[in-house]
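Appendix B. Raw example, untouched.
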Amino acid sequence: MDEDTLRAFAEASRGGPRLIGIDLGTKTIGLALSDLGRQIASPLETIKRVKFTPDVARLRFLCEQHAVGGLVIGLPLNMDGSEGVRVQSTRSFVRNLGPLLDLPVLFYDERLSTAVVTRALIAADTSRAKRGALVDKLAAAYILQGCLDRMRGLVESEDDDPF
């Protein structure tokens, strides 16, 4: 993702102080929420996927409840950067979401997010059952935190610009 895309998203998402990060899986949707200053991402919840309409209804409720200004959706690129079936599925979900939830969306590279989170949970000696309950919303927080850090980096580099 280039800086112009990130800047455009930051500007478009100013309608609400928070962002929601989404780790879209085939069975679950992991969600994370930024703080009001868009500095820290925290795990929010995991939606067990049923059907598109109730899944989106829950997401819409959470966006309204937390005054969300935009969505950061993990894009599951292949390790070589190419787009596969999961990317197509994610883009299709967002296309269908558009008419139902009028918020700006940013696709953010999620390669290795689940693996990083799983490794951290194993290192913390978390049981397999508890890891299963946590991994999706923690992966969403990992994705969102990466985006928040990049957005903050853009603002800081603009502040340093003498022109």
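End of appendix B.
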